[in-house]
Inverse folding.
């Protein structure tokens, strides 16, 4: 049977519905997995529902979205340029991540997913890169999708998957890792030193990437490798 890959979802308030970008669904389907959308749920039902969820999936993708994680999770006050917050989604994803980790499920965090993994392990974020790091590299530009190269550690799962030490990615984030959590190692960086990928040093398969590989598969089939790796780990 194909491994079941749970994908966390966003909430569209104007349509009162949960949603996942189609590229996640396509990436999992094209690499041999069965994608399942995971809506976040209210606090009262959360614990029992999460236990049931992790018992029915073989791997977890923590998806990205147009929102920020409340800095209360890493003991900082909110910066004036903090973006939209979705408290219910964030609380659910932290709990789901912990449950998946306890079950030793393979986990792939994308964009906000990487940031959540870092925070969950004890790290922190730059809440706004242009103001706090003052990097000359554009990581986010409204109305467009800037691109830049990343450099990959040859001693990493990411390298064994992609077989390259340098590749171009799209960049759509105004936050990034500031303090790297102790149980993580950085495996890719932008030209300005911003961490672009991490993996766990304590778990068999926990990887986070700051870009969106699911959106790049049609441009470069090399990105299927990352999802293939997840599917293999889930199998």
């Amino acid at each position: 049977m194909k491994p079941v890959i749970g994908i966390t979802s966003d909430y569209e308030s104007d349509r009162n519905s949960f949603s996942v970008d189609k590229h996640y669904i396509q990436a999992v389907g094209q690499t041999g997995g069965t994608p399942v959308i995971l809506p976040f749920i209210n606090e009262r039902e959360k614990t029992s529902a999460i236990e049931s969820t992790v018992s029915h999936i073989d791997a977890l993708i923590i998806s990205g979205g147009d929102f920020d994680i409340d800095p209360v999770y890493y003991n900082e006050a909110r910066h004036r340029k903090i973006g939209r917050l979705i408290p219910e989604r964030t609380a659910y994803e932290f709990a789901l991540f912990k449950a998946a980790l306890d079950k030793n499920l393979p986990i792939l965090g994308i964009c906000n997913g990487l940031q959540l993994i870092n925070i969950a392990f004890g790290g922190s974020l730059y809440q706004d890169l242009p103001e706090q790091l003052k990097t000359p590299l554009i990581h986010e530009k409204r109305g467009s999708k800037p691109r830049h190269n990343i450099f990959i550690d040859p001693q990493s799962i990411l390298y064994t998957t992609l077989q390259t030490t340098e590749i171009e990615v799209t960049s759509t984030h105004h936050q990034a890792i500031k303090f790297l959590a102790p149980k993580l190692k950085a495996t890719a960086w932008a030209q300005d030193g911003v961490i672009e990928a991490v993996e766990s040093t304590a778990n068999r398969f926990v990887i986070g990437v700051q870009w969106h590989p699911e959106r790049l598969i049609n441009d470069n089939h090399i990105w299927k490798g990352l999802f293939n790796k997840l599917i293999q780990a889930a199998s």
